[in-house]
């Protein structure tokens, strides 16, 4: 999806798992142009708990451990990938985005059905996030980590600013060299709107 120094437009990424087992460094997303794509119902898991500044915005994301059966146990042969199925208490079960009706109808008209990577039917109610559609008795998931507050959802205003180059928006623009500077009135305030998340 990267092209030169930018991101190709028009892609939609739904129901994926971005899993980083490195506890020492977060995933390097390289560019801050991921807003040119549409991310929805994905999982971004960082073993170290820290997320990269350029991580894509996904308001339906989950940041919890996916709880794979046994992640890391892969090798030669399809059967070695069973470790990437979901446990019964995975927070990703039933948390995915449903297939568009047009795609479901197309599959039906071709005499097929929607299946996951492991050839299990997806016609199991709400789809799961990832390549595995869990079948069986589910267990209640633990804490589900939902989106942190992305800067794109924030807005800010100030009682006053000294001049346009020091406006309130500079306080949250992620540029360490810029800042808000108030006017010289005795009482000043700045208000941050968290965007209703």
Could you write a compact summary of the structure shown?
With 197 residues, the protein is mainly beta. The chain is 5% helix and 13% strand.
Q: Provide a count of the helices.
A: 1
The helix/strand order is EEEEEEHEE
Provide the helix percentage.
under 10%
User: Strand arrangement, largest sheet?
Assistant: 1-2
Strand content: 5-15%
Query: What's the total count of β strands?
Result: 8
Low-confidence stretches: none
Biggest β-sheet description: 2 strands, antiparallel
Characterize the overall form. elongated
What is the secondary structure topology, with strand pairs?
Layout: E1 2-3, E2 6-7, E3 12-14, E4 17-20, E5 38-40, E6 43-46, H1 101-109, E7 155-158, E8 190-193
Parallel strand pairs: 3-5, 4-6
Antiparallel strand pairs: 1-2, 7-8
Structure write-up:
- The chain contains one helix and eight strands.
- It is mainly beta.
- The strands form four sheets. The protein has a two-stranded antiparallel sheet.
- The radius of gyration is 21 Å and the shape is elongated.
- The two termini are 28 Å apart.
- 17% of the residues are buried.
- The model has no long low-confidence stretch (mean pLDDT 81).
């Amino acid at each position: 999806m990267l092209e030169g120094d930018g991101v190709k437009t028009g892609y939609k990424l739904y129901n994926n798992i971005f899993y980083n087992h490195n506890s020492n460094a977060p995933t390097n997303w390289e560019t801050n142009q991921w807003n040119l794509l549409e991310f929805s119902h994905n999982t971004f898991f960082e073993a170290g708990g820290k997320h990269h500044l350029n991580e894509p915005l996904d308001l339906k994301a989950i940041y919890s451990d996916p709880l794979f059966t046994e992640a890391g146990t892969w090798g030669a042969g399809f059967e070695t990938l069973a470790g990437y199925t979901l446990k019964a208490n995975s927070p990703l079960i039933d948390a995915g985005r449903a297939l568009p009706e047009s795609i479901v109808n197309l599959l039906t008209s071709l005499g097929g059905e929607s299946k996951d990577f492991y050839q299990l039917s997806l016609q199991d109610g709400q789809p799961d996030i990832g390549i595995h559609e869990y079948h069986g008795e589910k267990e209640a998931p633990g804490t589900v980590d939902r989106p942190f507050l992305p800067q794109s959802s924030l807005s800010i205003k100030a009682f006053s600013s000294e001049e346009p180059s020091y406006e309130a928006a500079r306080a949250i623009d992620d540029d360490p060299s810029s800042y808000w500077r108030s006017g010289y009135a005795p009482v000043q305030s700045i208000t941050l709107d968290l965007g209703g998340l």
